[in-house]
């Protein structure tokens, strides 16, 4: 319990530091976002609105830095991440909320599938060395060396097309309205197959090789020999004894992968014109939309911290040694 509380305090401190750094980013970057906004709209916004826009963006020079910092925390407490410069006056939280579910759906599903498939094949390959599973190693190593976007381009050129079952762009047919109906869900799944497959194929080998190496190491431990001597079945020893201990290093890696789901896989989303957070961040960078960039960075940071905290909880459940004090 003490270890858990210590880790929780660490993550809370890290979250505070990330939010504080995020606050100072907009105040240290060169340029005046209000002037840039007035220039962009070129006469559509009256110059008398400068004071109101400055206060709206939280950049009022008449306020002390401490008052701005406290106001920033107040905005975050209400879920307010500011106003987007490039898509003024749409709130940043609204933009992220409309793009984030697509990234979670695509990259989340692909990450979980690659972890499950790679880990399962790694367990079999490490436990049954010399069998057919060894043939997977060179093939998966070759596929993992191919970048996501290159596999995506190959998939589009070979499998996508006007008469193909696999769409080559967008997260759903552009004529459809996003509603939770069976036909729309089926259409969204159809659009996600190719980009998800490129992520699974490229990332699966990392989990396979890591799990295989750990299984080879664990299989020579004394407690595995004792488990066999007790007459336990080979299947039970493989999963309950060897795999349970061998997968501990993979848990932390999987937790980090879950955290980075929020950031998406930028190049895959760009290649397939997928409406995810990666595409949104690229648009924000191209338009110098600082509030939108800050909002996305903050969401990614908090997601990674939450994923690491869940990894610590998983360690407590999988490894009894971590539950012992001192």
TrEMBL record:
The keyword Protein biosynthesis does not apply. Keywords: Membrane, Transmembrane, Transmembrane helix, Transport. One of its GO terms (biological process) is transmembrane transport. It is found in: Cell membrane; Membrane. The chain crosses the membrane at residues 99-127, 148-168, 188-209, 254-275, 295-318. Its main location: membrane. It is a multi-pass membrane protein. It comes from the Bacteria. Residues 100-311 form the ABC transmembrane type-1 domain. One of its GO terms (cellular component) is plasma membrane. SUPFAM superfamilies: MetI-like. InterPro entries: MetI-like (IPR000515), MetI-like_sf (IPR035906). The keyword Cytoplasm does not apply. Belongs to the binding-protein-dependent transport system permease family. This is ABC transporter permease. It comes from Actinospica acidithermotolerans.
